[in-house]
C-alpha cells in the first residue's frame, strides 16, 4: 500500500498554488508545510502527495512514464480537477473522457511537468 508520493519541484511556491487548488477540490488539507517541503493528505486517510526541492540540490526533473493518479468521487469531479489543473499552470495530457468500459479519466501535467490524472472506476 502506498502511503504517499513525493514529486520534485524547482519552484515550491508556484507548485503549491497548483496543488492547493487540486487538494481543495478533493477536500484534502495541507498536513505538512516546511521551508523545502509541503504535503497534502489526511492522517489515516488515503495516499498523500508531497512536493520538495531535490535533497541533492540538483534540478527537479520529470520521470518518464511516472504518473500520479488522483481518485475522484465522480465524473463531474474529474472534469473539475482537470479544469483546476489547467487554470493553475498545468497543461492538458488528455481531456476527461472514457478509457475503456469502466475507467473515466482526465490527464494533465503540473507546472513542473509531472504527469497526473483524475479518474473514477465503474
Automatic annotation (TrEMBL):
It holds the Pfam family Glyoxalase. Transmembrane segments: none annotated. InterPro entries: Glyas_Bleomycin-R_OHBP_Dase, Glyas_Fos-R_dOase_dom, VOC_core. It comes from the Bacteria. Residues 1-121 form the VOC domain. PANTHER family: BLL2941 PROTEIN, GLYOXALASE FAMILY PROTEIN (AFU_ORTHOLOGUE AFUA_5G14830). This is VOC family protein.
Amino acid at each position: 500500500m502506498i502511503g504517499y508520493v513525493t514529486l520534485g519541484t524547482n519552484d515550491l511556491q508556484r507548485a503549491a498554488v497548483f496543488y492547493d487548488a487540486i487538494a481543495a477540490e478533493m477536500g484534502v488539507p495541507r498536513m505538512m508545510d516546511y521551508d523545502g517541503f509541503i504535503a497534502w493528505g489526511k492522517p489515516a486517510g488515503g495516499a498523500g502527495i508531497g512536493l520538495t526541492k531535490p535533497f541533492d540540490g540538483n534540478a527537479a526533473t520529470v520521470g518518464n512514464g511516472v504518473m500520479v493518479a488522483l481518485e475522484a468521487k465522480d465524473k463531474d469531479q474529474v472534469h473539475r480537477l482537470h479544469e483546476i489543473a489547467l487554470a493553475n499552470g498545468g497543461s492538458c495530457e488528455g481531456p476527461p473522457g472514457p478509457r475503456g468500459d469502466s475507467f473515466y479519466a482526465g490527464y494533465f501535467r503540473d507546472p513542473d511537468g509531472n504527469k497526473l490524472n483524475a479518474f473514477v472506476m465503474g
